[in-house]
Amino acid sequence: MFIEQPAKFLRWLYPLALWRMDKSQRAVYLTFDDGPIPEVTPWVLSVLEEYGIKATFFMVGDNVRKHPDIYEAVRMAGHRIGNHTYNHIGSLRHGIRSYLRNVEKADELLHTDLFRPPHGWMKPAVYAAVRMRYKVVMWDLVTRDYSTRLNGRDVLLNVRRYTRPGSIITFHDSLKSHDKILYALPRAIEWLQSQGYEFRVFP
After folding, report:
1. Contacts for 184 with CB less than 8 Å, ≥ 6 apart
2. 60-78 b/e (C-beta count within 10 Å ≥ 16 → b)
3. CA distance 110 to 189
4. Alpha-carbon distance 104 to 27, whole Å?
5. Domain holding 62: CATH number?
6. In terms of residue numbers, what domain contains 115?
7. Which pTM was predicted?
8. What span, in angstroms and rounded, lies between the C-alpha atoms of 61 and 68?
9. Are 91 and 122 in contact (CB under 8 A)?
10. pLDDT by residue (tens digit) across 116-152?
11. Torsions phi, psi of 199, nearest 5?
12. How many domains are there within the chain?
């Protein structure tokens, strides 16, 4: 649960980031990290279209450079775009200036006001600097679809166990998660719909 739903002290580290949306609304916010890639992202788009759902894709700039057609398909389908740095870099291994340059390099392709740090961590000074330009979006539930220790049923169980009103739910449109979300994503959407959840994107 420490990973699936972050502990309170993690939320205190970034108090003005979005961890969970309005608790009084029976709504969830689907997000996808690390794309776009041709092996997974188009399939995710087709699933979302089938169910009539809009989501937010936190994209790696270099993947957008390699696959601009997929980026454009996501945008044209009406989904929200978020910045996930240009090279999926972690803040702890980079200075403030180099990290911010990487973020801005990604935004030359992404053109967005949303940002999510890879690995969910930033140095306090980086967080303060990024917040001057972006809305920082974290998560209320990470499905752990990237884990080699879990299968698709485990990922679906995480969604069913930890989702609550206002949850920001994180999947990954990446090769690591591909086999798990093939099973879990459609079933998670159907379960959420059966529980009366509305799907929203960030304002």
Report:
1. 143, 145, 152, 153, 155, 156, 159, 171
2. bbbbbeebeebbeebeeee
3. 27
4. 31
5. 3.20.20.370
6. 8-199
7. 0.96
8. 10
9. yes
10. 999 998 999 999 999 999 999 999 999 999 999 999 9
11. -100, 125
12. 1
